[in-house]
Design brief:
The protein is an alpha/beta fold. It contains 11 helices and 12 strands.
C-alpha cells in the first residue's frame, strides 16, 4: 500500500509538471465587426427605379467590394427623415447616406448634433460646409444636353417636352441641359425644334407635378404634352415618369427619355418606347465616399462631383431603338460629349 501511495504521488507530480510546461491555449480569434453603410431614402422609396435605388446600388457595391454591411430605412413622409436618421445614429453606422435635396435640413441637423458620425448626401452641398458631411453633386445638364440634341434630331413633329417633380436644382438642371441641347441643335442645323414644359428665361414657370410618386399626374402631364404635339418627352420626377411612360405606350406615337437610371433596364415594360436615359450614377459617387471611409481618408466638408469626364453622368444606350438613330446623329453626339469634356462647349454660353 505504501508503494502504491509513492507511485500515485509521483504520477501527480509529473502531471503537474507537464501541465505547467504545456503551451497556453490560444483564445479563438474574434472577427472584427463589419463596417456598415446606412441609407435613408426620400419618400420615393428604395424601389423607385430612380435616385434612391441607384444610391442603394452603391451601398450594395460596398458589400461586395469592401465586405461592409448595408441597410436602409424608407421615409414614407417628411416626418420620417429625422426618425430614420436618429435610428442610424443609435446603430453607430460608419457612413449614413441620405438621398435627395429634400433631406438637406434633416441631414444638417443630424450631422451638427452628432459630430462623430460620418454623412454623405445625394444632390446637396452645404454653404458653409459641414465638417462631417460629403455632398454628392452631378453635372446632369451635361448628359441632358446630349439628350436634348438627340431629341431634336429625332422628333418628327418639331416639338419635344419635359416636366419636373419640383422646381429644385437637382430637377431643373436636367431640364436646363435638355433645352440647351435642343437650342444647340437648332443653331447647328438651322431648325426650329420647340421645347414644351420649360423655358430657360422663366424656369419657375415650367411644368412641375409637385410630386415624385403620383403616377396619375405623370400620365396627365404626358397626355397634355402629346396633345400639344410633343413626340419625345423627358419626365424628371422619379416614379411619376412611369405614368408618362404608360401614357406614351397607350398612344404609341411618342418616345420617352428616362432619367437617373437606364429605364430600358429598370422599367422593361417600357423598353420599346425608351429612346435613351440621362444617367446620374449615384452608385459610383456613393461608393467613392465609402472608399474614403474604408481607407481612413474621409474628408467631410467637401463634395464629390459626377461629370461626363469621370462617368458620374452619361447617356444610356439606345437599345431597341438603336436602328432608329442615324449613324450621323450618333457621331455628332459622341463629338459633342468629347467637346464638353474638353471644354470646347460651355453649356452656359448656349441661350
Amino acid at each position: 500500500m505504501k508503494k502504491f501511495s509513492v507511485i500515485l504521488a509521483v504520477v501527480i507530480v509529473l502531471s503537474l509538471v507537464l501541465s505547467a510546461c504545456a503551451p497556453a491555449a490560444t483564445p479563438a480569434a474574434t472577427e472584427a465587426p463589419k463596417k456598415k453603410v446606412c441609407q435613408v431614402t426620400d419618400t420615393g422609396g428604395i424601389d423607385d427605379k430612380s435616385f434612391n435605388a441607384t444610391a442603394w446600388k452603391g451601398a450594395q457595391d460596398a458589400m461586395s467590394t469592401y465586405g461592409w454591411d448595408a441597410k436602409y430605412l424608407e421615409s414614407k413622409e417628411v416626418a420620417d427623415y429625422e426618425k430614420n436618421l436618429n435610428a442610424f445614429v443609435e446603430e453607430k453606422c460608419d457612413l449614413i447616406v441620405t438621398v435627395g435635396f429634400l433631406l438637406g435640413d434633416a441631414t444638417k441637423a443630424a450631422a451638427e448634433t452628432n459630430t462623430d458620425m460620418k454623412y454623405t448626401i445625394v444632390d446637396f452641398a452645404y454653404d458653409p460646409a459641414i465638417p462631417n458631411v460629403v455632398g454628392q453633386l452631378f453635372q446632369t445638364d451635361e448628359a441632358a444636353f446630349l439628350a436634348g440634341y438627340l431629341a431634336a434630331g429625332m422628333t418628327k413633329t418639331g416639338k419635344v417636352g419635359t416636366f419636373g417633380g419640383l422646381p429644385i436644382p437637382p430637377v431643373t438642371i436636367f431640364m436646363d441641359g435638355f433645352v440647351r441641347g435642343v437650342k444647340h441643335y437648332n443653331a447647328v442645323k438651322g431648325t426650329a425644334v420647340e421645347v414644351l414644359g420649360y423655358d430657360l428665361e422663366n424656369p419657375d414657370k415650367g411644368l412641375f407635378t409637385n410630386s415624385f410618386d403620383d403616377q396619375t399626374k405623370g400620365k396627365e402631364f404626358g397626355i397634355n404634352l402629346m396633345d400639344e404635339g410633343a413626340d419625345i418627352i423627358m419626365p424628371v420626377a422619379g416614379p411619376v415618369g412611369l405614368g408618362t411612360a404608360a401614357a406614351i405606350k397607350e398612344r404609341g406615337n411618342a418616345w420617352l427619355i428616362g432619367v437617373d437610371s437606364d429605364w430600358f433596364l429598370t422599367s422593361p415594360d417600357y423598353a420599346d418606347i425608351t429612346l435613351t436615359s440621362v444617367l446620374k450614377n449615384m452608385d459610383k459617387t456613393t461608393l467613392e465616399v465609402v472608399k474614403e471611409v474604408e481607407d481612413g481618408a474621409f474628408m467631410g466638408g467637401t463634395n464629390v462631383m459626377g461629370t461626363l469626364a469621370n462617368g458620374g453622368v452619361g447617356l444610356a444606350p439606345y437599345h431597341d431603338l438603336d436602328a432608329q438613330v442615324s449613324a450621323e446623329l450618333k457621331a455628332e453626339i459622341e463629338q459633342l460629349k468629347a467637346d464638353i469634356i474638353a471644354g470646347k462647349i460651355k453649356l452656359a454660353d448656349i441661350k
